[in-house]
Amino acid sequence: xxxxxxxxxxxxxxxxxxxxxxxxxxxxxxxxxxxxxxxxxxxxxxxxxxxxxxxxxxxxxxxxxxxxxxxxxxxxxxxxxxxxxxxxxxxxxxxxxxxxxxxxxxx
Length: 107
Prior knowledge:
mainly alpha; elongated; Antitoxin VbhA domain-containing protein
């Protein structure tokens, strides 16, 4: 799969998330992982694994903060309000499959 197709799929997935009212992850590490995927250096399951690790790290920091009075603010871009997070991996995969389909379903 080409870099162009992967970049378009990622951009479209981010745009769709924004249009749906979801907060798009701002962490530089996440965007670096997406760039690695776009360049073909890693696969999407690895991006997802790293992102789950990042979310677990944030959760651990929140728990530690709630147990001890806060001494510094740690930026947290994780979803709130009980709404399920936007599944970027699924959306990117769906958009890539659409790009592979011939126009009007013709092979």
